[in-house]
Amino acid sequence: MPETPDISAAVPAEATPPLSEGETAESAETTHVPETAKEHETMLDVHPAHHAASSWKEFFIHIATIVLGLLIAVGLEQAVEHSHHRREVAEVREELRGEREANKDSFRSETTNWRWETAELENNLMVLAYLQKHPGTPDEKLPGSLVWFHASAPNTQAAWDAAKNSGVTSLMHREEVEQYEDTYNKLKRIDDARSLAYDGMNDASRYELTDNRLSHLSPAQIAEITTLTQIALCSDDLADEGGGVCAVGGGQRAGSGDELSASLHARRLPAASRRQHRQHRIFPSMRIEL
C-alpha cells in the first residue's frame, strides 16, 4: 500500500520577512492592518478624475458629471429645507388655529358683556339725569340705582407674536399674513376700548368708597360721574369712527377716541391720578373673521 505523501513537507512555507531587532511577531502583524477610512465631514465632495482627460469630449463629460452631481446634492438639501419650512408653517398654523378658537370664545363673552354694560350705563345716565333735575332725592325714590359691574375676557395674541418673532410668517402667503394682521389689530382695538371703558366706570364709581348714598352727592359730583359714565359708554359702544352716538359734557359730540381719552384724563378723580395715561381710539363698526 503506497504511503500518503507529506503535503506539508511538499508545499514550501510562505516566506516571512525577518523581524527587526526588538520587534515581536504581534507588532509586525498589526503594522500590516489597514486603517479605517475616515468619514467625510463635508456634504458636497467632488472626487478627482482617475486619469486626465485625453480629449475635449472626455473633459466636457467630466465637467457635466460634476455639475450634475452638485445639482443633485443641492436639490436634496433644498428639498430637506423646504420640508422643514413646511413643517414649521404647519405647526404655526395649528397654534394660530387654537388661539383663534380661544379668541372666538373671548369675543362671544365680550359681546355679551358689552350688551349688559351698555344697558347698565344707559340706566346710570337716566338715574344721574334725574338726580341733576331733583338733587337730594332719597335713594329709595329714585327711578333706579347705579350699577358699575364690569366683566372682561381679553383676547390673546401670544401665538401670533411668537410666529412673527420667529420669522415663520415670512414663509406664509402674504394674503394669509395680512388677514391675520388685520384680525389681531381689530381685536387689540376692542381690548383697548374695553380697557378705557373700565377706566371710566372705575373712576365714576369711586364715590362709593366714601359714601354710597346717591342722595348725598353734590351737583359737581353728579356732573363728574355723568361725564365719566358718558366716556365709558362711548368707549364701550361699537360706534362709527368719529364719535357717532357718543356725547360728552352736556351734549357735546366727542370728535374722536383721543378726545375721550384726554377728557377722561383731565376729569380723573384724585385717587386715580397715579394711573398712567394711555391713548385709545373708538373702534369703528367692524366685521372680524375668526
Main sheet, how many strands, which sense, barrel? 2 strands, antiparallel
Order of helices and strands: HHHHHHEEH
- The fraction of residues assigned to DSSP E strands is under 5%
Coarse shape:
rod-shaped
Low-confidence stretches: 7-15, 25-42, 238-245, 247-286
Overall average residue pLDDT: 74
Distance between the termini: 106 Å
Quickly give the structural class: mainly alpha
Number of H- or I-type helical stretches = 7
Task: Kindly describe this structure.
The protein is rod-shaped, with a radius of gyration of 42 Å. The protein is 54% helix and 1% strand. The protein contains 7 helices and 2 strands, in the order H-H-H-H-H-H-E-E-H. It is mainly alpha-helical. The protein starts with 6 loop residues before the first helix and ends in a 24-residue tail after the last helix. It has a domain of 201 residues. Strand 1 and strand 2 form a beta hairpin. The protein has a two-stranded antiparallel ribbon. Helix 3 packs antiparallel against helix 6 and helix 6 runs antiparallel to helix 7.
Gist of the model:
Residues 20-31 have a biased composition (Low complexity). By secondary structure, the protein is an all-alpha fold.
Give me the secondary-structure topology.
Blueprint: H1 7-10, H2 25-30, H3 56-133, H4 158-166, H5 174-204, H6 219-236, E1 247-248, E2 252-253, H7 257-266
Antiparallel strand pairs: 1-2
Helix pairs in contact: 3-4, 3-6, 5-6, 6-7
Descriptive labels:
mainly alpha, 290 residues, rod-shaped, 7 helices, 54% helix
